[in-house]
Amino acid sequence: MLSKLQLLSVYFGDDIIYKIYLRSQVIHKLFESNPELDINKLDLFHLQFTQSLIDLLRKIKKNNEGNISLLFDEIQINKEMIERLNDPTYTLANFNIEKQRQALKINLSLRKLFQVLSDSANDNPLSKNINSFSSRFAADFFYTISNDLVEEVTAYNLPGVYKNEYATIQRKLMGVLCKYDFKTEFYCGLKSGSQVIEIYKFLEVDRYFLYAPQDSLFVFFDKAKIADIDMSTNLSKKEKLVYELKNKNDKLEGNAAAMKVYMPAEITSLLADNYKKISDISFLDDITNIDVQANILKSMLNTDLI
Question: Could you give the angle at which helices 92-119 and 132-141 cross, rounded to 10 degrees?
Fold first, then answer.
């Protein structure tokens, strides 16, 4: 029993448990050194007090380990989720590369559109898979706007556009594109439900236009319309979630270490009282004090504190 109590004192790392273990060892040695003492009283002490204390500590230990197991299950689930979310196809680095490619596609498509419209040809000027960019990245990297704003910024007057079966472009926008040699870059993406809009900026002037893939529409865009959008973070939703899950796992692992040796305050107080009692009493004179403390320990096994 002393060996079991020692192991539990090491497990919990609690000073009062270790003091109780040392005091119990002293009591045990007292009987070993004095053969004339009634050995039955030592047996009673161990059976009543030591065993009751061991049972109580084991129950706390088992309960703590059960709670820790739940924490580690959650940590493992989070790790599996992180692995699934770390798909390189949808990382920020990949997005930054692809938006440059998309800008090249848009610029090339606009050049071809100018030629098609000038020649009154029927060729499709839009680059192959030009809409795959939005379908891949809109969910994670495009900013959400209202449907009303989508309708507002995509509205145009029919007399003010060039139009064929493949695309619609604002006449004035085509003029500005020609002036700046079709040199633009991707600025940001917007979305509202299933609708997406790509915003582009001229390299040589602070002007913007949009491309609406669902309508193959190109019109000027007023950046002031999205002035309230916070563009300070470039993390995708998936990358934000990965960051949050990693932080959560760090906290859970810290909680697990504390939870391993957790002991209710009522139990800690009881153990301190027990130590005081077994340090003061004379077992030869007042063995009933052990019975009282043992009964208190046993009653703790049946409470909701653990």
Answer: 140
Residues 211 and 216: their CA atoms lie apart, in Å, by 7
Per the DSSP assignment, residues forming a β-bridge with 191 are 144, 196
Which tokens in the block code for residue 63?
A: 């309960």
Question: Under a CB-based contact definition with an 8 Å cutoff, are residues 188 and 140 in contact?
Answer: no
Long-range CB contacts (< 8 A, 24+ apart) of 265-271?
A: 266/300, 266/305, 267/56, 267/60, 267/300, 267/305, 267/306, 268/14, 268/16, 270/296, 270/297, 270/300, 271/14, 271/16, 271/17, 271/20, 271/53
CA distance 259 to 280: 32
- Going by the DSSP 8-state scheme, the letter that residue 157 receives in this structure is -
User: Quick check: helix, strand or coil at residue 29?
Assistant: helix
For 243-296, how does the pLDDT look when each residue is reduced to its tens digit (9 = 90+)?
Answer: 889 999 999 998 888 898 898 888 888 888 888 878 875 654 555 455 555 566
- In this structure, are residues 8 and 58 in contact, taking their beta carbons and an 8 Å threshold? yes
Please check whether residue 150 is in contact with residue 192, taking contact to mean a CB–CB distance below 8 angstroms: yes
Please give the distance of CA 24 from its chain centroid, rounded to a whole number: 47
Question: What residue has token string 């594109």?
Answer: 177
Mean pLDDT of 23-33: 86
